[in-house]
């Protein structure tokens, strides 16, 4: 039990560091704060959903660790884009803001699905919003990079 508490404490501590990094690269404090709260709510409702739908024995520290790691990786998407843009001297504020908006929507969708599952005891099929976001961003950068090799005469 103490191992789980340490893991949770470390997660929240690092989540605060990530929030500070998001603020440091110029994202709006209210958006960063709201996203952080939604991520925490999603983790809590996700655990409760698993408890309700699959029984308490199905919750493992390994599963929890992977869930927490995936949340941290999700927050890495806007950080990576913003840092790359700063390094290239580009203004991709609109793209980063759009990604943050999609993350807010994704976390809200997940929380609502968790709440429904907690209430009914039946899990809904998840829609991988984050996968779609990452694929679209990757496609955007592929299109962008294709223009780097073109020389205008």
Outline of the structure:
The chain has helices at 2-24, 29-54, 61-88, 93-120, 129-146. The protein has 153 residues and is mainly alpha-helical.
- What does the overall shape look like? elongated
Q: Count the helices. How many? A: 5
Q: What series of H and E elements makes up the topology?
A: HHHHH
Number of strand segments: 0
What this model shows, in words?
With 153 residues, the chain is an all-alpha fold. It is 80% helix and 0% strand. The chain contains 5 helices and no strands. The chain is elongated and about 55 Å long. The relative contact order is 0.12.
Labels describing this entry:
153 residues, 5 helices, mainly alpha
List the helices and strands and how they pair.
Blueprint: H1 2-24, H2 29-54, H3 61-88, H4 93-120, H5 129-146
Helix pairs in contact: 1-2, 1-3, 2-4, 3-4
